[in-house]
C-alpha cells in the first residue's frame, strides 16, 4: 500500500458505520423522553376514547370484595369489553412506541398490530380467570395482571427478535416494570405527603393523578424505553440486510 493510499481520507461508507446498539447512544435521551411522552399522550387519548365507547360496552360483572377489578371498575369487565379495551389500548400503545422505534428497524404497523393482540389477550385472560374464581384473593389480581404482561412482550418479541441479540430478555421486561412501578409510586406519594403547605384537597387530587398516570408512565414508557436502549443489534441487522431471528 502506498503512502498516498494510507493518508487518503476514509469514505463516508467507511466512517459512517452503523451503531452496534439498537438505539445509538447519541439518540438515547431523546428516545427515552419521546417514548415516555408518547405514552402519556396515549393514556390521555385512550381515556377519552374509552369514555366515548363505554356506554355501548357490556356492563362489568361484580366480584367479591377481594377482586382488584371491583376497586377499578365496580367489577371485572365483561370478556367482550375486555377484548375491545385491550385492542384499543394496545393499538394506541403500539402506535406510540412504533412511531419512534420504526426509525431503528421495526415496522410501525406490524409493531402496533402485535401490541394490540398482546394487550387484548392480556385483558381477556385476566377477565376470564377472575370470573372463573369469582372471589379471587386480594393479591391474586395484581400478580395475575403483572404475569400476563408477558403476553405483550411475547407479541412484540416476534418482531424484536429479528433486530437484536438476546431478544428473549424482552419477555421479562414488562413483568419487571409492572411490579417495579409500585415502590416507585409509593416513593412519589411519600414525597407528596411531605408537602404540608398544600391544601388537603389539592394533596388528594395530586395523589389520584400520580396513581393514575405515574404508574403507566413507568411501566409502559420509561422502563421499556430504557430496555430497548440496552439491546445490541444482531449482526445481520447491523449489516443492513434482511434480518434473521436471533435468540
Structure description:
With 247 residues, this protein is mostly helical. The protein is 68% helix and 0% strand. It has 11 helices and no strands. The protein has helices at 3-7, 12-15, 28-53, 68-73, 79-101, 108-133, 140-148, 150-160, 170-193, 200-229, 235-238. Helix 6 (108-133) runs antiparallel to helix 8 (150-160), helix 7 packs across helix 9 and helix 8 packs across helix 9. Mean pLDDT is 78; it is low at 5-15, 65-73 and 239-247.
What global shape is seen? Answer: globular
Radius of gyration: 22 Å
Cα distance, first to last residue? 41 Å
Quaternary organization: single chain
One letter per element, helices H and strands E, the order comes to: HHHHHHHHHHH
Total number of helical segments?
11
Total DSSP E strands: 0
Average of pLDDT: 78
Helical content band: 55-70%
Low-confidence stretches: 5-15, 65-73, 239-247
Summarize the biggest pleated sheet: none
Strand portion = under 5%
Structural class by helix and strand composition = mainly alpha
Amino acid at each position: 500500500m502506498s503512502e498516498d493510499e494510507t493518508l487518503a481520507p476514509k469514505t463516508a461508507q467507511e466512517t459512517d458505520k452503523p451503531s452496534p446498539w439498537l438505539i445509538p447512544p447519541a439518540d438515547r435521551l431523546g428516545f427515552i423522553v419521546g417514548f415516555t411522552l408518547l405514552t402519556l399522550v396515549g393514556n390521555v387519548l385512550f381515556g377519552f376514547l374509552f369514555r366515548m365507547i363505554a356506554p355501548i360496552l357490556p356492563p362489568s360483572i361484580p366480584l367479591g370484595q377481594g377482586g382488584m377489578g371491583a376497586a377499578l371498575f365496580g367489577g371485572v369487565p365483561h370478556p367482550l369489553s375486555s377484548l375491545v379495551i385491550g385492542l384499543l389500548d394496545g393499538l394506541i400503545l403500539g402506535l406510540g412506541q412504533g412511531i419512534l422505534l420504526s426509525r431503528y428497524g421495526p415496522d410501525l404497523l406490524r409493531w402496533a398490530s402485535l401490541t394490540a393482540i398482546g394487550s387484548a389477550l392480556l385483558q381477556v385472560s385476566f377477565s376470564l380467570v377472575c370470573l372463573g374464581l369469582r372471589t379471587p384473593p386480594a393479591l391474586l389480581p395484581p400478580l395475575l395482571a403483572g404475569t400476563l404482561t408477558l403476553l405483550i412482550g411475547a407479541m412484540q418479541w416476534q418482531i424484536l427478535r429479528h433486530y437484536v441479540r438476546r431478544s428473549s430478555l424482552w419477555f421479562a421486561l414488562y413483568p419487571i416494570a409492572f411490579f417495579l412501578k409500585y415502590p416507585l409510586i409509593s416513593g412519589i406519594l411519600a414525597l407528596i405527603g411531605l408537602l404540608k403547605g398544600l391544601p388537603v384537597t389539592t394533596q388528594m387530587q395530586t395523589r389520584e393523578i400520580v396513581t393514575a398516570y405515574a404508574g403507566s408512565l413507568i411501566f409502559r414508557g420509561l422502563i421499556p424505553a430504557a430496555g430497548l436502549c440496552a439491546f445490541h443489534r444482531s449482526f445481520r441487522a447491523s449489516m443492513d440486510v434482511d434480518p434473521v431471528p436471533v435468540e
